[in-house]
Amino acid sequence: MEQIFEKSLQAAEYIRNIISCDPEFCFVTGSGLDNHVHRYNIIDTIPYTDVPHMKHSTFHKGHFLHCEHKGTHFLILRGRLHYYEGYSAKEVTFATRILSQLGVKRLLLTNASGGLNPEFENGELVMLNDHINLFPEHPLRGPNDERFGERFPDMSDPYDHDFRKRILGIAESQGIKLEQGVYAGFQGPSMETPAEYKFLHIIGADMVGMSTVPEVIVANHCDMKTAAISIVTNVCYPPERIKPTTVEDVINTANKATPGLYAIVDRLINP
Q1: Which domains does the chain carry?
Q2: How far is the C-alpha of 43 from the C-alpha of 53, rounded, in Å?
Q3: To bridge 224 with a disulfide, which of 30, 137, 219, 250 should be the other Cys (CB 3.0-4.6 Å)?
């Protein structure tokens, strides 16, 4: 863990030397959710491959974007690393460590998910209020470095209550429908089977996806206020609603739902 601290510090210093500021807010785009980033003034684009010790994304675009909106500077992570790409849990969450070293205080993660709540429809925005970690590797496994956080971080409020309350207030004021639910994190890359969807529904999951959970754990370890919004891109429960799904289907559905998501982000940047 000590090596991760030093490496993430070096990566953060590389980014800081380019952006010349200390943004307090970061927004991470999930699958199909980056098509509106150009609504903001993008000052610097830093490929993940340019950042010391950072791995490259094989599925998403991989960029740190230094952006400005109405005088406020912030970061966008355009794409993320996934466990299914072959990276370790520590490598998947390295960008989150970098954000902590940069001084980010509020982190909004987004993703595309399969809907397990029978009341959810395709294209629906759902804010995570809890999660179920089904990844085979924990990002905090191994020696702990207390410069990041304590050995056994509390996870009773992984998605910060006050942050969520603020997002709900923004959605209501903008007339945006925003549900809440529990997200189950699977490693992927295969989509879940009907039996797995049934199992996930039984254990209390409203959505399932292949990201977010490791990042949230590390963000909490680093004492960042964290929230996450998912777009349901394929309804998976009850079984009769399941249809064959491709990645293209997921991205197309996510694209259609982004206006509401970005309307919320706009207000988070500039209250």
Answers
A1: 2-269 (3.40.50.1580)
A2: 23
A3: 219
